[in-house]
Amino acid sequence: MKLGPIRGLENKRCASRRADDETVFPEDPGQDDMVHSLALVGGLAALLTGVLACGDSDSCYGPTNAVEHVRQVKRMQPGVPHAAYGPKGPLEWGQVNFLHTTDTHGWLEGHLKEKNYGADWGDFVTFTRRMKRTAAKRGVDLLLIDTGDLHDGNGLSDATPIDGTMSMPIFDELEYDLLTIGNHELYVSEVSYQMFNEYARRWGDRYITSNVKVLNKTSGQHEYVGKTHRYFTTRHGLRVMAFGVLFDFVRNSNASIILKAQDMIKEPWFLDALTTKDPIDMFILFGHNPAHPSNPVSTFKLVFDEIRKVHPKTPIQIFGGHSHVRDFAVYDESSVAIASGRYCETLGWVSMTGFDESNSAFDGSEKPRCSLHPSRPALDNSTSPFLYSRRYLDWNRKTFIYHSNSHELHYDRRAGKKVTDKISKTRHVLKLGDVAGCAPQDWCMSCAPMEDLNKNIYTGLMSPAMSAMVVNKTRADKPRIILANTGAIRFDLHKGPFTYDDNFIVSPFRDVFLYIPDVPFKLASQVIRKLNLGPVAKRELASMANPLDSCTDPSLGYLSRRDMRETRGVVRRQEIVVPGYTTTDDWGTDGDDTEHSEIPSYEIPPYWETRASFPDDGSDPETVDLVFFDFIEKLVLNDLGAGYTHEMVQCYVDCNFSSQDFMLPYARLAWSENKDNCPVM
Ligand SMILES: [Zn+2]
Ligand SMILES: [Zn+2]
Q1: Which of 3, 102, 314, 487 is the most exposed place for a label (fewest CB within 10 A)?
Q2: Considering the entire predicted model, what is its pTM?
């Protein structure tokens, strides 16, 4: 790793102070800590990881009673590849500091095949404990905040009959100060009940759902899932009022009710909270809600304006989610907002100073020693006393170790290791590491245009896979056109073992393949064009996630390129940078904690089609079987026109065969080579 000098920390006293930070933890590393550390640094990683992850009678190569010939990935989350290099410099610590997660969607195991995001939830638990400790030593506040969407996107959360049954207890291991609900906790009633009955209660007054109610089956009433708001005092005396506001989500199941923001602000409790006689030093407005006020989905500005009517100068710190992007927005000279990405790829950092006895009861350190300090006013012409910093951290151990001033050998703490082991065991129980095949290359959703059959996941991988595997055997020789929405695919596929877990990651929704037999080709071949011209389908089944929701796939939405379209200037410190986030926000392009080169990004249409069993001579068939996902049935019928009705629609393979059922068999068929010795990178 080649890093520049640490600005502001050159003096020896601070240098030794930094070194001290590595050893401040009284916890005895103990023997298993040593084993763990060794496992992470040596060539023994795969072997030792297996030892740690498994045990019992099952081996790492699949349970002994497995029917299928499967094996577990050798390198489970403790042994995933390390990031190539670390952050560009230390964080700026203010009087109050925030770490923000959002849209984790079950990715608690980290990204097993991506170096930039290899840390797991255990590594993160350790990081938060170390950072809290650092904050305490420096005499400042550090708050941990999450803004929802805990399911749909990873096997760890989705491979159980009710989403989150095994992932939520892992997520729960973090000592958050504030949490709130996402739309993905509200599609499926059982999940909403789980949040209401179990997790909201466990998190107590830290779980804030200012505009979301769930049916209490005992009382028969819809009740707030968590608290409507929280008034609390930080360790160093800041008196905080917090609201947790979900965007105006409408496709929830009937287990919940979402108050629109415009109605929420008229609620008596909200008005009381604004006019309370209790002093308020800072508002925290957080929620599963896009951070930037220019985003038409966001309702933060509406709530912000209501707060400002009563509190014209009090700082309002905003933490957003749902948009799956890195973003930072300035609301006014005393209010800034951050969005901290998705899928455990990003950890958001915000810090601020400016509190004194005239505007707060803050009793901590004004300028914590041995660290940089926030130096930037929200606006160039700000007259408010508040200065800020913001940073988007890559989710890997190099990041965590660097910012906790630690070392690979000494970093881990028992609480974190326990969580890491719990993830390993859960993955083992759910058989998430079972390998179906060895993917020979990467395919991406938007880094290459649809025409690029070598790289684009839709045309390069999904089309051949669907052609081969989505087949009604009695009609296999009939020409067919398969129509699908690009939003059904939710993540790039990376070279290496294609596992049971990857199937959830790439294709998390269960859309059943339907068809109409013998549609004239001239008519059927027009449908894709009409679909892409027409309104995007709205999923009607509340029990299933909406793949066209901007949250499920930001690369297809209006939010898409904000964080990727700008090219960066010359990169100075790193001689070689790897592709990754290159964010542009209201403050410019210096927010990414680790420097990266830009990943190209192309517009992808809402729908695409695949053709199979067409005549060898290249001629057009007379008729085709027109195959499509169940949720776009109405649109397809509409585009086919008069004479096409629901009665003509049948299940294509069978009535259970869905978008989750073709990639695993395709991987077994097409990628059997090297399956048992498949390199991760
Ligand atoms: Zn999300
Ligand atoms: Zn969302």
Answers
A1: 3
A2: 0.84
